[in-house]
Amino acid sequence: GLVFITFFGFSAIAASAGEVANPTKTIPRAIFLSMMIVTILYTLVVFVIIAANLTEYTEAAMGNAARLFLGPVGGMVIVVGALFSMISASNASILAGSRVVLSMAQLGHLPSGIATINSQTRTPIISLMLVGGAIVLFAQSFRLEKLAHFADTILLLALILVNAALIYHRKKFPTLPRPFRVPFVPLLPLIGIAANIYLLSLILQHPEPVIMAVLWLIVGMLGFLAWKGSQAEEEFLPGEPSRVAQMSMEGQESDFRVLVPIANPTNVAPLIDLASAIASENDGEIVVMRVVSLPEQSPTSREASYVERERRILEQAHLRAKSNGVKVSSLVMIGRNPARAILETARERHCDLIVLGWKGYTSTANRILGEIVDDVVNLARADIMLVKLVGEAKIKNILLPTTGGIHARLAERYTALIAKAHNARLVVSTVVSPDGGATQKFSIQQSLSETVGRINDESSVHVESQIITHKSVPVGIIQASEEYDVIAMGAAGESFYKQILFGSIPENVAKHTDKTVIVYKQYSPVKALVGRVMES
Q1: Which CATH superfamily is domain 390-525 in?
Q2: Cβ within 8 Å of residue 506, ≥6 positions away
Q3: Is the pLDDT assigned to residue 320 strictly greater than 90?
Q4: What DSSP assignment string belongs to 106-142?
Q5: Does position 499 have pLDDT exceeding 50, yes or no?
Q6: How far lies 355's CA from each of 17, 66, 261, 497, 521, in Å?
Q7: Where are the domains of the chain?
Q8: Is the pLDDT of residue 367 over 50?
Q9: Which end of the chain is more exposed for a tag (fewer CB within 10 A), N or C?
Q10: What distance in Å separates the CA atoms of residue 402 and residue 451, rounded to the nearest whole number?
């Protein structure tokens, strides 16, 4: 039979790495030694069975061969050895499985309660019970042969994914320190994938256990996605939850809320004006907040002075919003992680849009937009409006480059509201290569006309269209923006990974232009969930 899973016990060694001294050296050494010893023993056993020249080779072949060479005592030795072997294998499976479940719970991929450690035995009692229960369930659900094919299918699929993950991980993080480095990547894992696919094809003649294995994997994935989707977005960030130090609310809450975190007090007026333009047309309110990051071991007596300073800044925001005729509430949050405080506020206050100020670039290593902005943009369950402010010029001319998509539609809707509030001219544009033919330009002009018509139907703002001709899209936008006050655009990136938060075009434009830039990103629950899962 195809019961090569008995050869796979070395996986339990890696699962217990957290409990091994010097694991970077000990684990690889133990895996290779165990594989070598087991291979030698299995090969010798096969030679003995062949030398016995048995008439049939069944599950009892090893015992029959032992009786031929050693008499009745040999048969008993094999039976007792098989019992101890099964007990040992079961113990190793429960050990490895419970440690995997424990690690997933500690990393936030499963409920934290599963990571509970028994105070007396110092063992993960909940994960042990779950894994043991699952083993009993599957053992009672299948006959031995079907159970073997069921386990083989899951194992082979897992090995295919592990080899694929190795190739992807090596390509994505080429400079990551690796105490043990798998040689010959991607050749070796590709050979592993091909071999596993071949072995899997041999099991397909037993469809029932294969179908059950695939169904159980789907159930597990759906359960994992459901759990990740139920987690609050701020739980993905380090630090303790923030708390409200001061809150001011005005009248009845609105159904539409715009959250405006204030990092730079000099940006209060322009950010509130932009938020007001959107909130007023949606009969909404502005939630303005400041985050106080107190040093470690700060005395409580110092908190009042911090809060009073922030309150004066929020008063400016209140006055500005009231002058725009928009309802406003404010909060002073105290927390170690500003991004976490913003996400908590957005979730608890049910905010639909987050307006963030941004300097247009970041000097922080391994960050795209900035330490706080990256986390908020990547994790927020709300639309994002990122604003790079330049000067204090009036908004009279707005350039809106667009290529379609959900982010572009969001940019159209919100930018039209801003143009209406400031009585500004709005120009919708697309960059075309000089090598583009007449047919391409005609198609783009039709698309721009549809965009203009869509904006006119939704608002009364004056809209024009323009085709920008340039080989480089970012450079073409920057050069065309000379006569404009603001460049507004939707995110170009559709990636699930936070390494591409808005797409290279908006990020390059914001970095190299001397104009105010507004970039929009629409929240998509499905893509956000998949993104969180892929990143974790």
Answers
A1: HUPs (3.40.50.620)
A2: 489, 490, 491, 492, 517, 519
A3: yes
A4: HTTSS-GGGG---TTT-S-HHHHHHHHHHHHHHHHHS
A5: no
A6: 44, 77, 7, 21, 11
A7: 4-230, 239-359+371-379, 390-525
A8: no
A9: N
A10: 9
